Amino acid sequence: MYRLPEYDYYKPGNLEEALKLLDKLGDARILAGGTDLILDMKTGRYKPRSVIDIGGLKELKYIIDTGEALRIGALTTIQELVDFPIVHSKTPLLWEAAIRFAYWQIRNMATIGGNLCNASPAADTAPPLLVYNAVVKAASLSGERYIPIGDFFLGPRHVSLGRSELLVEVIVPYKSLEKYGSAYAKIGRRRGHDISVVAAAAAIRVEDGLIADARVALNSIAPTPVRARSVEKYLVGRRPGIEVFREASKLVSSDVSPITDVRAPAEYRLHAAMVLVEDLLLESYKRAFRGGQE
Amino acid sequence: MVRVSFRVNGEPVEFDVKPSELLINTLREKLGLTSVRYGCGIGECGNCTVLVNGEPVLACLTLTVDVDGCEVLTVEGLSKSELTRVQKAFIEEGAVQCGYCTPAFILMAEYLVRSKPEPSIDDVREYLKGVLCRCTGYVNIFKAVLKASGSGRGRERVDKG
Domains in chain B, start-ordered, CATH in brackets? Predict the structure, then answer.
Protein backbone atom coordinates (compact mmCIF):
# COMPACT_ATOMS: atom_id res chain seq x y z
CA MET A 1 0.00 0.00 0.00
CA TYR A 2 1.45 3.32 -1.05
CA ARG A 3 1.24 6.26 1.33
CA LEU A 4 1.68 9.91 0.53
CA PRO A 5 4.40 11.63 2.56
CA GLU A 6 3.52 14.74 4.54
CA TYR A 7 4.17 18.13 2.95
CA ASP A 8 3.26 21.76 3.46
CA TYR A 9 0.29 22.39 1.23
CA TYR A 10 -0.60 25.64 -0.50
CA LYS A 11 -3.60 26.27 -2.73
CA PRO A 12 -3.32 29.67 -4.40
CA GLY A 13 -6.55 31.33 -5.50
CA ASN A 14 -5.08 33.02 -8.56
CA LEU A 15 -1.98 33.08 -10.73
CA GLU A 16 -0.35 35.99 -8.91
CA GLU A 17 -0.67 34.20 -5.58
CA ALA A 18 0.81 31.09 -7.17
CA LEU A 19 3.81 33.04 -8.49
CA LYS A 20 4.37 34.71 -5.11
CA LEU A 21 4.29 31.33 -3.36
CA LEU A 22 6.66 29.85 -5.89
CA ASP A 23 9.04 32.77 -5.44
CA LYS A 24 8.92 32.48 -1.64
CA LEU A 25 9.09 28.70 -1.30
CA GLY A 26 11.74 27.96 -3.91
CA ASP A 27 11.86 24.18 -3.67
CA ALA A 28 8.13 23.56 -4.00
CA ARG A 29 6.56 21.04 -6.35
CA ILE A 30 3.67 22.16 -8.53
CA LEU A 31 0.56 19.98 -8.42
CA ALA A 32 -1.62 20.22 -11.53
CA GLY A 33 -3.61 17.10 -12.51
CA GLY A 34 -1.70 14.88 -10.11
CA THR A 35 -1.36 11.82 -12.33
CA ASP A 36 2.44 12.10 -12.23
CA LEU A 37 3.22 14.02 -9.03
CA ILE A 38 0.89 12.10 -6.68
CA LEU A 39 2.23 8.77 -7.83
CA ASP A 40 5.83 10.01 -7.80
CA MET A 41 5.34 11.13 -4.20
CA LYS A 42 3.75 7.77 -3.36
CA THR A 43 6.66 5.82 -4.81
CA GLY A 44 9.21 8.14 -3.20
CA ARG A 45 10.70 9.67 -6.35
CA TYR A 46 9.88 13.11 -4.97
CA LYS A 47 9.69 14.12 -1.32
CA PRO A 48 8.95 17.83 -1.58
CA ARG A 49 8.77 20.01 1.51
CA SER A 50 5.99 22.05 -0.10
CA VAL A 51 3.32 21.39 -2.70
CA ILE A 52 1.62 24.25 -4.53
CA ASP A 53 -1.70 22.99 -5.84
CA ILE A 54 -2.55 25.07 -8.92
CA GLY A 55 -5.37 22.73 -9.98
CA GLY A 56 -8.00 25.34 -9.12
CA LEU A 57 -6.61 28.13 -11.32
CA LYS A 58 -9.36 28.36 -13.92
CA GLU A 59 -7.51 31.21 -15.66
CA LEU A 60 -4.98 28.64 -16.93
CA LYS A 61 -7.67 26.53 -18.59
CA TYR A 62 -8.43 27.74 -22.13
CA ILE A 63 -7.83 27.19 -25.82
CA ILE A 64 -7.70 30.29 -28.00
CA ASP A 65 -7.32 30.31 -31.78
CA THR A 66 -5.37 33.41 -32.86
CA GLY A 67 -5.66 32.54 -36.55
CA GLU A 68 -1.94 31.66 -36.60
CA ALA A 69 -1.62 29.50 -33.53
CA LEU A 70 -3.54 27.80 -30.77
CA ARG A 71 -2.80 29.27 -27.35
CA ILE A 72 -3.45 26.53 -24.83
CA GLY A 73 -3.62 27.26 -21.10
CA ALA A 74 -1.28 25.04 -19.10
CA LEU A 75 -4.08 23.49 -17.06
CA THR A 76 -6.09 22.40 -20.08
CA THR A 77 -6.64 18.68 -19.63
CA ILE A 78 -5.73 16.10 -22.25
CA GLN A 79 -9.41 15.18 -22.55
CA GLU A 80 -10.20 18.82 -23.30
CA LEU A 81 -7.67 18.68 -26.15
CA VAL A 82 -9.58 15.66 -27.45
CA ASP A 83 -12.95 17.39 -27.06
CA PHE A 84 -12.17 20.82 -28.58
CA PRO A 85 -12.93 20.65 -32.33
CA ILE A 86 -10.27 23.32 -33.12
CA VAL A 87 -7.55 21.08 -31.73
CA HIS A 88 -8.65 18.40 -34.17
CA SER A 89 -8.95 20.74 -37.15
CA LYS A 90 -5.92 23.02 -36.56
CA THR A 91 -3.40 20.76 -34.82
CA PRO A 92 -4.34 17.20 -35.79
CA LEU A 93 -1.02 15.74 -34.60
CA LEU A 94 -1.62 17.08 -31.10
CA TRP A 95 -5.18 15.78 -31.20
CA GLU A 96 -3.98 12.30 -32.19
CA ALA A 97 -1.43 12.25 -29.41
CA ALA A 98 -4.17 13.34 -27.01
CA ILE A 99 -6.61 10.62 -28.00
CA ARG A 100 -3.87 7.97 -27.73
CA PHE A 101 -2.90 9.33 -24.31
CA ALA A 102 -3.44 6.83 -21.47
CA TYR A 103 -7.17 6.38 -20.86
CA TRP A 104 -10.30 8.29 -20.02
CA GLN A 105 -9.83 8.80 -16.29
CA ILE A 106 -6.20 9.89 -16.68
CA ARG A 107 -7.01 12.19 -19.63
CA ASN A 108 -9.62 13.91 -17.44
CA MET A 109 -7.00 14.66 -14.81
CA ALA A 110 -3.69 15.14 -16.66
CA THR A 111 -2.89 18.57 -18.06
CA ILE A 112 -0.77 19.64 -21.04
CA GLY A 113 1.43 21.77 -18.77
CA GLY A 114 1.93 18.87 -16.39
CA ASN A 115 2.77 16.49 -19.21
CA LEU A 116 5.53 18.85 -20.38
CA CYS A 117 6.88 19.90 -16.97
CA ASN A 118 7.06 16.31 -15.75
CA ALA A 119 9.51 15.93 -18.64
CA SER A 120 9.22 12.20 -19.01
CA PRO A 121 11.18 10.97 -22.04
CA ALA A 122 7.83 9.37 -22.98
CA ALA A 123 5.77 12.60 -22.76
CA ASP A 124 2.97 12.02 -25.25
CA THR A 125 2.27 15.63 -26.18
CA ALA A 126 5.95 16.34 -26.91
CA PRO A 127 6.50 14.86 -30.41
CA PRO A 128 3.61 16.82 -31.98
CA LEU A 129 4.62 20.01 -30.18
CA LEU A 130 8.21 19.59 -31.40
CA VAL A 131 6.96 19.21 -34.96
CA TYR A 132 4.77 22.33 -34.66
CA ASN A 133 7.75 24.27 -33.23
CA ALA A 134 5.59 25.11 -30.24
CA VAL A 135 6.66 27.71 -27.72
CA VAL A 136 5.90 27.61 -24.01
CA LYS A 137 5.27 30.70 -21.94
CA ALA A 138 6.81 30.79 -18.47
CA ALA A 139 5.66 33.32 -15.89
CA SER A 140 7.32 34.53 -12.72
CA LEU A 141 7.11 37.60 -10.52
CA SER A 142 9.73 39.24 -12.71
CA GLY A 143 7.73 38.80 -15.91
CA GLU A 144 7.14 36.44 -18.78
CA ARG A 145 9.49 34.44 -20.94
CA TYR A 146 8.95 32.41 -24.09
CA ILE A 147 10.88 29.17 -24.52
CA PRO A 148 10.92 27.15 -27.77
CA ILE A 149 9.81 23.62 -26.99
CA GLY A 150 13.08 22.32 -28.48
CA ASP A 151 14.99 24.11 -25.69
CA PHE A 152 12.54 23.21 -22.95
CA PHE A 153 13.53 19.62 -22.13
CA LEU A 154 16.98 19.36 -20.57
CA GLY A 155 16.91 15.74 -19.44
CA PRO A 156 14.63 13.19 -17.80
CA ARG A 157 12.42 15.10 -15.32
CA HIS A 158 14.41 18.25 -15.97
CA VAL A 159 13.19 21.35 -17.81
CA SER A 160 14.57 24.81 -18.46
CA LEU A 161 12.31 26.58 -15.98
CA GLY A 162 13.79 28.61 -13.15
CA ARG A 163 12.77 27.71 -9.60
CA SER A 164 10.29 30.56 -9.44
CA GLU A 165 8.89 30.12 -12.95
CA LEU A 166 5.58 28.51 -13.82
CA LEU A 167 4.63 27.21 -17.24
CA VAL A 168 1.38 29.01 -18.02
CA GLU A 169 0.72 28.54 -21.72
CA VAL A 170 1.60 26.41 -24.72
CA ILE A 171 1.55 28.19 -28.08
CA VAL A 172 1.14 25.90 -31.07
CA PRO A 173 1.72 27.68 -34.40
CA TYR A 174 -0.27 25.75 -36.97
CA LYS A 175 -0.43 28.25 -39.81
CA SER A 176 3.14 27.59 -40.90
CA LEU A 177 2.33 23.88 -41.17
CA GLU A 178 -0.70 24.26 -43.41
CA LYS A 179 1.18 23.33 -46.58
CA TYR A 180 2.66 20.22 -44.95
CA GLY A 181 1.36 16.69 -44.85
CA SER A 182 1.69 15.24 -41.38
CA ALA A 183 1.19 12.02 -39.44
CA TYR A 184 1.49 10.63 -35.91
CA ALA A 185 1.83 7.11 -34.51
CA LYS A 186 2.51 5.50 -31.15
CA ILE A 187 3.70 2.02 -30.32
CA GLY A 188 2.98 0.62 -26.86
CA ARG A 189 3.07 -2.90 -25.55
CA ARG A 190 -0.65 -3.06 -26.04
CA ARG A 191 -3.30 -0.92 -27.70
CA GLY A 192 -5.02 -0.21 -24.39
CA HIS A 193 -3.37 2.46 -22.35
CA ASP A 194 0.31 1.77 -22.16
CA ILE A 195 3.13 4.27 -21.96
CA SER A 196 4.81 4.57 -25.33
CA VAL A 197 7.66 2.28 -26.33
CA VAL A 198 8.20 4.83 -29.05
CA ALA A 199 5.95 7.46 -30.58
CA ALA A 200 6.65 9.83 -33.44
CA ALA A 201 5.21 12.73 -35.36
CA ALA A 202 6.29 13.84 -38.82
CA ALA A 203 5.51 16.62 -41.30
CA ILE A 204 6.70 17.17 -44.86
CA ARG A 205 6.37 20.03 -47.34
CA VAL A 206 6.99 19.38 -51.01
CA GLU A 207 7.74 22.14 -53.52
CA ASP A 208 8.36 21.61 -57.23
CA GLY A 209 8.67 17.88 -56.69
CA LEU A 210 11.34 18.17 -54.01
CA ILE A 211 11.17 18.01 -50.23
CA ALA A 212 11.37 21.63 -49.08
CA ASP A 213 11.13 20.91 -45.38
CA ALA A 214 10.79 17.91 -43.10
CA ARG A 215 10.17 17.71 -39.39
CA VAL A 216 10.38 14.50 -37.37
CA ALA A 217 10.13 14.11 -33.60
CA LEU A 218 10.11 11.08 -31.32
CA ASN A 219 9.68 10.20 -27.66
CA SER A 220 10.84 7.35 -25.40
CA ILE A 221 14.05 6.88 -27.30
CA ALA A 222 16.41 9.47 -25.80
CA PRO A 223 16.74 11.25 -22.43
CA THR A 224 14.18 13.77 -23.70
CA PRO A 225 11.67 13.85 -26.53
CA VAL A 226 13.77 14.79 -29.57
CA ARG A 227 13.75 16.08 -33.13
CA ALA A 228 15.46 13.71 -35.57
CA ARG A 229 17.67 16.38 -37.13
CA SER A 230 19.82 14.01 -39.23
CA VAL A 231 16.71 12.52 -40.79
CA GLU A 232 15.33 15.98 -41.53
CA LYS A 233 18.61 17.21 -43.01
CA TYR A 234 18.92 14.17 -45.27
CA LEU A 235 15.43 14.68 -46.67
CA VAL A 236 15.58 18.35 -47.59
CA GLY A 237 16.22 18.86 -51.29
CA ARG A 238 15.61 15.22 -52.24
CA ARG A 239 12.85 13.84 -54.39
CA PRO A 240 10.29 12.13 -52.14
CA GLY A 241 9.89 8.37 -52.51
CA ILE A 242 9.95 5.11 -50.60
CA GLU A 243 13.71 4.59 -51.03
CA VAL A 244 14.54 8.08 -49.82
CA PHE A 245 12.25 7.69 -46.82
CA ARG A 246 13.85 4.33 -45.97
CA GLU A 247 17.39 5.75 -46.17
CA ALA A 248 16.33 8.75 -44.11
CA SER A 249 14.72 6.59 -41.44
CA LYS A 250 17.99 4.71 -40.88
CA LEU A 251 19.57 7.97 -39.76
CA VAL A 252 17.29 8.01 -36.70
CA SER A 253 20.02 6.03 -34.95
CA SER A 254 22.32 9.07 -34.93
CA ASP A 255 19.65 11.29 -33.37
CA VAL A 256 18.62 9.05 -30.49
CA SER A 257 20.05 6.98 -27.63
CA PRO A 258 17.48 4.37 -26.69
CA ILE A 259 17.70 2.54 -23.39
CA THR A 260 16.52 -0.87 -22.27
CA ASP A 261 13.81 -0.77 -19.62
CA VAL A 262 10.74 -2.71 -18.50
CA ARG A 263 8.83 -1.70 -21.60
CA ALA A 264 11.30 -2.64 -24.33
CA PRO A 265 14.95 -3.40 -25.12
CA ALA A 266 16.99 -0.63 -26.74
CA GLU A 267 17.43 -2.63 -29.97
CA TYR A 268 13.69 -3.04 -30.36
CA ARG A 269 13.08 0.63 -29.67
CA LEU A 270 15.56 1.69 -32.33
CA HIS A 271 14.17 -0.74 -34.89
CA ALA A 272 10.60 0.31 -34.10
CA ALA A 273 11.59 3.97 -34.38
CA MET A 274 13.08 3.45 -37.85
CA VAL A 275 10.01 1.60 -39.09
CA LEU A 276 7.74 4.22 -37.56
CA VAL A 277 9.64 7.12 -39.12
CA GLU A 278 9.64 5.49 -42.56
CA ASP A 279 5.89 4.87 -42.34
CA LEU A 280 5.15 8.37 -41.09
CA LEU A 281 7.26 10.03 -43.78
CA LEU A 282 5.41 8.09 -46.45
CA GLU A 283 2.05 8.90 -44.91
CA SER A 284 2.96 12.58 -44.52
CA TYR A 285 4.05 12.71 -48.13
CA LYS A 286 0.81 11.13 -49.31
CA ARG A 287 -1.13 13.67 -47.33
CA ALA A 288 1.00 16.55 -48.60
CA PHE A 289 0.39 15.27 -52.11
CA ARG A 290 -3.35 15.10 -51.52
CA GLY A 291 -3.21 18.60 -50.06
CA GLY A 292 -2.92 18.92 -46.35
CA GLN A 293 -3.10 17.21 -43.06
CA GLU A 294 -5.71 14.74 -42.01
CA MET B 1 -5.72 20.23 8.50
CA VAL B 2 -7.89 21.69 5.77
CA ARG B 3 -11.65 21.99 5.95
CA VAL B 4 -13.39 20.57 2.86
CA SER B 5 -17.05 20.30 2.03
CA PHE B 6 -18.46 18.48 -0.95
CA ARG B 7 -21.32 16.19 -1.90
CA VAL B 8 -21.07 12.44 -2.04
CA ASN B 9 -23.92 10.57 -3.74
CA GLY B 10 -26.11 13.61 -3.30
CA GLU B 11 -25.46 14.09 0.42
CA PRO B 12 -23.38 17.00 1.72
CA VAL B 13 -20.29 16.01 3.74
CA GLU B 14 -17.71 18.06 5.61
CA PHE B 15 -14.35 17.00 7.02
CA ASP B 16 -11.07 18.32 8.30
CA VAL B 17 -8.47 16.44 6.28
CA LYS B 18 -4.71 16.37 5.97
CA PRO B 19 -3.60 17.85 2.63
CA SER B 20 -2.06 14.46 1.84
CA GLU B 21 -5.33 12.56 2.29
CA LEU B 22 -6.44 10.78 -0.88
CA LEU B 23 -10.05 10.72 -1.99
CA ILE B 24 -10.08 6.91 -2.02
CA ASN B 25 -9.29 6.85 1.71
CA THR B 26 -11.89 9.47 2.60
CA LEU B 27 -14.55 7.57 0.69
CA ARG B 28 -13.66 4.13 2.02
CA GLU B 29 -12.59 4.86 5.58
CA LYS B 30 -14.66 7.88 6.58
CA LEU B 31 -17.80 7.18 4.58
CA GLY B 32 -17.69 3.39 4.31
CA LEU B 33 -18.05 3.50 0.52
CA THR B 34 -16.12 0.31 -0.13
CA SER B 35 -17.22 0.05 -3.76
CA VAL B 36 -14.24 2.33 -4.43
CA ARG B 37 -11.57 -0.32 -4.80
CA TYR B 38 -7.88 -0.07 -4.09
CA GLY B 39 -6.03 -1.89 -6.85
CA CYS B 40 -2.58 -0.67 -7.85
CA GLY B 41 -2.46 2.72 -6.14
CA ILE B 42 -0.52 4.23 -9.06
CA GLY B 43 -3.09 4.90 -11.75
CA GLU B 44 -2.68 1.73 -13.77
CA CYS B 45 -5.77 -0.36 -12.94
CA GLY B 46 -8.66 2.11 -12.82
CA ASN B 47 -10.44 0.18 -10.05
CA CYS B 48 -10.77 3.30 -7.88
CA THR B 49 -12.70 5.20 -10.58
CA VAL B 50 -15.37 7.60 -9.27
CA LEU B 51 -17.27 10.36 -11.04
CA VAL B 52 -16.40 13.90 -9.95
CA ASN B 53 -18.84 16.46 -11.34
CA GLY B 54 -19.94 13.71 -13.71
CA GLU B 55 -16.45 12.99 -15.09
CA PRO B 56 -14.51 9.80 -14.33
CA VAL B 57 -11.30 10.27 -12.34
CA LEU B 58 -9.06 8.05 -10.22
CA ALA B 59 -9.67 8.37 -6.49
CA CYS B 60 -6.20 6.98 -5.70
CA LEU B 61 -4.50 9.94 -7.42
CA THR B 62 -6.93 12.65 -6.30
CA LEU B 63 -6.40 14.65 -3.12
CA THR B 64 -9.54 15.03 -1.03
CA VAL B 65 -8.84 18.77 -0.75
CA ASP B 66 -9.23 18.98 -4.52
CA VAL B 67 -12.87 17.84 -4.55
CA ASP B 68 -13.89 20.72 -2.28
CA GLY B 69 -17.19 21.99 -3.64
CA CYS B 70 -17.57 19.08 -6.06
CA GLU B 71 -20.16 16.35 -6.53
CA VAL B 72 -18.71 12.86 -6.11
CA LEU B 73 -20.59 9.79 -7.29
CA THR B 74 -19.81 6.17 -6.40
CA VAL B 75 -21.76 3.04 -7.27
CA GLU B 76 -23.59 3.29 -3.93
CA GLY B 77 -25.20 6.50 -5.14
CA LEU B 78 -26.36 5.27 -8.53
CA SER B 79 -29.80 4.07 -7.52
CA LYS B 80 -31.85 4.72 -4.45
CA SER B 81 -34.56 2.14 -5.18
CA GLU B 82 -34.35 0.30 -8.47
CA LEU B 83 -31.14 -0.82 -10.18
CA THR B 84 -30.01 1.16 -13.22
CA ARG B 85 -30.13 -0.22 -16.76
CA VAL B 86 -26.40 -0.79 -16.61
CA GLN B 87 -26.56 -2.67 -13.32
CA LYS B 88 -29.41 -4.85 -14.60
CA ALA B 89 -27.52 -5.61 -17.81
CA PHE B 90 -24.42 -6.64 -15.82
CA ILE B 91 -26.56 -9.12 -13.86
CA GLU B 92 -28.36 -10.42 -16.94
CA GLU B 93 -25.16 -10.92 -18.92
CA GLY B 94 -23.23 -12.41 -16.00
CA ALA B 95 -20.65 -9.65 -16.39
CA VAL B 96 -19.16 -10.33 -12.96
CA GLN B 97 -16.55 -12.84 -11.89
CA CYS B 98 -14.76 -12.05 -8.62
CA GLY B 99 -16.49 -8.66 -8.59
CA TYR B 100 -13.50 -6.57 -7.53
CA CYS B 101 -13.45 -4.39 -10.66
CA THR B 102 -17.24 -4.32 -11.11
CA PRO B 103 -17.95 -0.93 -9.48
CA ALA B 104 -15.39 0.82 -11.71
CA PHE B 105 -16.78 -0.85 -14.83
CA ILE B 106 -20.33 0.07 -13.81
CA LEU B 107 -19.36 3.73 -13.36
CA MET B 108 -17.52 3.90 -16.70
CA ALA B 109 -20.51 2.19 -18.34
CA GLU B 110 -22.91 4.70 -16.76
CA TYR B 111 -20.66 7.49 -18.07
CA LEU B 112 -20.70 5.96 -21.55
CA VAL B 113 -24.47 5.45 -21.57
CA ARG B 114 -24.98 9.09 -20.58
CA SER B 115 -22.50 10.60 -23.03
CA LYS B 116 -22.53 8.35 -26.10
CA PRO B 117 -25.79 7.05 -27.57
CA GLU B 118 -25.61 3.90 -29.72
CA PRO B 119 -21.95 3.13 -29.03
CA SER B 120 -20.05 0.69 -31.21
CA ILE B 121 -18.02 -2.12 -29.70
CA ASP B 122 -14.92 0.01 -30.33
CA ASP B 123 -16.49 2.89 -28.40
CA VAL B 124 -17.18 0.53 -25.52
CA ARG B 125 -13.57 -0.68 -25.54
CA GLU B 126 -12.32 2.92 -25.63
CA TYR B 127 -14.46 3.98 -22.66
CA LEU B 128 -13.65 0.90 -20.58
CA LYS B 129 -9.98 0.44 -21.43
CA GLY B 130 -8.81 2.20 -18.27
CA VAL B 131 -10.29 -0.44 -15.99
CA LEU B 132 -8.48 -3.74 -15.63
CA CYS B 133 -10.26 -7.00 -14.80
CA ARG B 134 -7.79 -9.65 -13.63
CA CYS B 135 -10.35 -12.43 -14.10
CA THR B 136 -10.25 -11.17 -17.72
CA GLY B 137 -14.01 -11.40 -18.03
CA TYR B 138 -14.20 -8.60 -20.57
CA VAL B 139 -16.50 -10.22 -23.13
CA ASN B 140 -19.55 -10.37 -20.87
CA ILE B 141 -18.82 -6.87 -19.62
CA PHE B 142 -18.84 -5.55 -23.21
CA LYS B 143 -22.08 -7.42 -23.89
CA ALA B 144 -23.69 -5.92 -20.82
CA VAL B 145 -22.64 -2.39 -21.73
CA LEU B 146 -23.90 -2.73 -25.30
CA LYS B 147 -27.17 -4.09 -23.96
CA ALA B 148 -27.54 -1.25 -21.46
CA SER B 149 -26.74 1.33 -24.11
CA GLY B 150 -29.90 0.38 -25.91
CA SER B 151 -28.83 -1.77 -28.81
CA GLY B 152 -30.51 -4.84 -27.30
CA ARG B 153 -28.34 -6.92 -29.58
CA GLY B 154 -25.31 -7.00 -27.37
CA ARG B 155 -24.47 -10.66 -27.74
CA GLU B 156 -24.55 -10.61 -31.53
CA ARG B 157 -22.45 -7.49 -31.86
CA VAL B 158 -19.69 -8.56 -29.51
CA ASP B 159 -19.32 -11.95 -31.19
CA LYS B 160 -18.90 -10.27 -34.55
CA GLY B 161 -16.60 -7.59 -33.16
Answer: 2-75 (3.10.20.30), 85-156 (1.10.150.120)
Q: Do A104 and B41 touch (CB under 8 A)?
A: no
Residue A139's closest CA among A37, A30, A10?
A: A30
Instruction: Return phi, psi of residue A201, to 5°.
Output: -130, 145
Q: Are A292 and A181 in contact (CB under 8 A)?
A: yes
Whether domain A179-290 has CATH 3.30.390.50: the reply is yes
Closest CA to A276 of A166, A185, A211, A210: A185
> Which class would CATH give A58-175?
alpha beta
pLDDT tens column, A108-166: 999 999 999 999 999 999 999 999 999 999 999 999 999 999 999 999 999 999 999 99
**Mean pLDDT, rounded, of chain B:** 93
User: Letter for the amino acid at A181?
Assistant: G
- pLDDT, tens only, A88-113: 999 999 999 999 999 999 999 999 99
Give me the total of CB pairs closer than 8 Å, taking one residue from chain A and one from chain B: 73
Residues of B near A (CB-CB distance < 8 A)? 2, 18-22, 38, 41-43, 46, 49, 55-58, 61-63, 65-66, 108, 111, 126-127, 129-130
- State the Cα torsion B18-B22-B26-B27 to the nearest 10°: 170
Mind listing the pLDDT tens digit for each residue in A201-217? 999 999 999 999 999 99
Among A290, A291, A202, smallest CA distance to A252 is for A202
Q: Could you say which of A51, A56, A192 has the minimum Cβ distance to residue B129?
A: A192
Distance CA B39, CA B45 (A): 6
Domain ranges of chain A: 8-53, 58-175, 179-290
For chain A, what's the residue count?
A: 294
ipTM of the complex: 0.92
Task: Supply the pTM of this predicted model.
Answer: 0.94
Domain spanning A8-53: CATH 3.40.1360.10 = no
Concatenating the DSSP letter of every residue in A117-154 gives HTT-TT-TTHHHHHHTT-EEEEEETTEEEEEEHHHHEE
Which letter does DSSP use for residue B143 in this model?
Answer: H
Which residue from A149, A130, A142, A132 is spatially nearest to A166, judged by alpha carbons? A142
CA–CA distance, A55 with A51 (Å, rounded to integer): 11
Residues of A (227-256) whose Cβ lies below 8 Å from B = none
Residues in B closer than 8 angstroms to A4, CB to CB, are 20-22
